Amino acid sequence: MTFASKTSSLRSTIRSRDPLFKWSLEDFREWLLGTDNRVRGTAAPLWHCEYCREIVGLEGLSIDHALPLKWGGLSDGDNLVPCCKPCNSAKGELGASQFRELRSLARTWPALMRTYLFRKLMAMPQGWLRAQAAQRGREKLLRRIKHRPGVDTGDEADG
Ligand SMILES: [Zn+2]
Asked: How many whole angstroms from 90 Cα to the centroid of ligand 1?
């Protein structure tokens, strides 16, 4: 995997999720090489994962929206963070601070439970939380309709 191919695919992934992401490939590469997470003084490009601080190379590199797009996060230099793939998939649609809190809470747990939790989180399909939220939204809407007199009964409007 080359830097050129990896950065091109990372940028495509962000673009496919956020049509407002307008960075050129040049801008994206410049940002990635200049980010604070970059491990300095190495020939190969390496980064510290934003969340677990492990060192990740091109192969394991992933780009996360610290504040997820669905919560209004932007695809810009303040919100995009390099991280490892396991952290990105475990984080899902949690905000960065929520994920850090979860990680630090889990640190007090026995190793077995911690491993179990993160395996489960990583195995969760990406759309799972979205589906949960959509379901809650539908239920709320149904409740609202039910409680609005006359809406689903076909009654004539009050004279
Ligand atoms: Zn990580």
From this structure: 9
pTM higher than 0.70 for the full model? Answer: yes
CA pair distance 77, 40, nearest whole angstrom: 19
Alpha-carbon distances of 78 from 35, 74, 84, 111, 127, rounded to whole Å? 10, 8, 18, 33, 25
> Has residue 139 got a pLDDT over 80?
no
Residues 76-92 have a mean pLDDT of: 95
b/e map of 36-59 (b: 16 or more CB within 10 Å)?
ebeeeeeeebbbbbbbeeeebebe
Q: Is residue 68 predicted with pLDDT exceeding 70?
A: yes
| Fold type of domain 3-148 | Herpes Virus-1 (3.30.40)
59 Cα: distance to centroid of ligand 1 (angstroms): 13
The alpha carbon of 51 and the centre of ligand 1 are apart by a number of angstroms equal to 5
Cα of 102 vs centre of ligand 1, distance in Å, is: 13
Give the Cα separation of 7 and 126 in Å (integer): 22
Please tell me the distance between residue 79's alpha carbon and the centre of ligand 1 in angstroms: 16
